[in-house]
Amino acid sequence: MKTRAAVAWKAGQPLTIETVDLAGPKAGEVLVEIKATGICHTDYYTLSGADPEGIFPSILGHEGAGVVVDVGPGVKSLRKGDHVIPLYTPECRECKFCLSQKTNLCQAIRSTQGRGLMPDATSRFSLNGQDLFHYMGTSTFSNYIVVPEIALAKIREDAPFDKVCYIGCGVTTGIGAVLFTANVEAGANVVVFGLGGIGLNVIQGAKMVGAGKIIGVDLNPEREKMAREFGMTHFINPNDVENVVDAIVQLTDGGADYSFECIGNTKVMRDALECTHKGWGRSIIIGVAEAGAEISTRPFQLVTGRKWEGSAFGGARGRTDVPKIVDWYMEGKINIDSLITHKLKLDDINKGFELMKAGESIRSVVEF
Ligand code: NAD
Ligand code: AHE
Ligand code: ZN
């Protein structure tokens, strides 16, 4: 079949809208009509050329929601008409990683996914006979996609696509990092570095669990207002203080219990670790840093009890947890609407990247 999609031809170049060929679902695969997709900073990161796994030409996008149109042979858990959110972190419930119950990082299809291919090592997308690569196993900047069954969360049918698409990455990543990865307890002091589409969801998660002080750090002063609405109690602009770490240590009587880096800046990652409390502070890296980047600190920081950790997709097991997060939204327990600052049509998708770069949007959502 044919589908409209935004194609990334080369690093650093705007996407172009094309009508591409999409082959039908093979065994264990599902054809999905994407109704809406968010634009995450990670899409920008890959388009910029900084992603060691970035390959072109490809169809980016990993924050979508849509409807099952067709299923391939052997698909048991989904049928035509089901509403779904594609998962860049699948949940096969069979691999060593899933069975360990220690991680959400299902590895069933990770190697082909990282090479822009379906599990049988081929692409379903092409244009004029040239293959186009998939991205993060999702490619939600295409109106129609083919995805393995294990990479789809079935969600309730009354949930609006243009809002719950954001649960496909940003909402789950931020709230999940607090609830599933760090398991932050009531009363704990939390610091969030970077108050964008991810960081504001970390703040929302910290508020949900009854955190004590919730300190937000961002270079963009415009972020303060929205962050306070989501539960931030203190704001620090690094330009306004001599030393961010000292300012946080002072505010928290010796250091934060938890910190979250939601930028992808390795210098900030160091600050995020070093502002946590001696003996028990935990710093969770969420931000994705460019190829070749490395983190550093004095090992003494770890010897004296701080822990450096990371979180992917908020530690969420997609097929199990995503439908629950959709329920939280529908029950009014979490706010997604205020974070979606811009709605765009596919033809204007490059505008979404510009708004992000200019710090003008939290999330832009493209509706098909
Ligand atoms: P965003 O662009 O919406 O937000 C980034 C925020 O950081 C902005 O508000 C910006 O002003 C602020 N910032 C930039 N440099 C700063 C600095 N030096 N000090 C303080 N603030 C600074 O991006 P996003 O969509 O929220 O994504 C944030 C990061 O999380 C990206 O690196 C993205 O790739 C990553 N990410 C990771 C996961 C995961 O599963 N681990 C999931 C989604 C996104
Ligand atoms: N290809 C990148 C990896 C980027 C990365 O860490 N991605 C996160 C999700 S970001 C969503 O916005 C993730 O899930 N990582 C785990 C994984 O298996 O990729 C690189 O730097 O190589
Ligand atoms: Zn993302």
TrEMBL record:
GO process annotations (BP): formaldehyde catabolic process
Substrates-to-products reaction catalysed: S-(hydroxymethyl)glutathione + NADP(+) = S-formylglutathione + NADPH + H(+); a secondary alcohol + NAD(+) = a ketone + NADH + H(+); S-nitrosoglutathione + NADH + H(+) = S-(hydroxysulfenamide)glutathione + NAD(+); a primary alcohol + NAD(+) = an aldehyde + NADH + H(+)
SUPFAM superfamilies, per the entry: GroES-like (SSF50129), NAD(P)-binding Rossmann-fold domains (SSF51735)
Enzyme nomenclature, EC number: 1.1.1.284
Cofactor(s) named in the record: Zn(2+)
Keyword list, A-Z: Metal-binding, NAD, Oxidoreductase, Zinc
Positions of the Enoyl reductase (ER) domain: 12-366
InterPro entries linked to this entry: ADH-like_C, ADH-like_N, ADH_3, ADH_Zn_CS, ER, GroES-like_sf, NAD(P)-bd_dom_sf
Domain of life (superkingdom): Bacteria
Pfam families for this protein: ADH_N (PF08240), ADH_zinc_N (PF00107)
Similarity comment: family membership: Belongs to the zinc-containing alcohol dehydrogenase family. Class-III subfamily.
Role according to the record: Has high formaldehyde dehydrogenase activity in the presence of glutathione and catalyzes the oxidation of normal alcohols in a reaction that is not GSH-dependent. In addition, hemithiolacetals other than those formed from GSH, including omega-thiol fatty acids, also are substrates. Also acts as a S-nitroso-glutathione reductase by catalyzing the NADH-dependent reduction of S-nitrosoglutathione.
Stated name of the protein: S-(hydroxymethyl)glutathione dehydrogenase
Organism of origin: Paraperlucidibaca baekdonensis
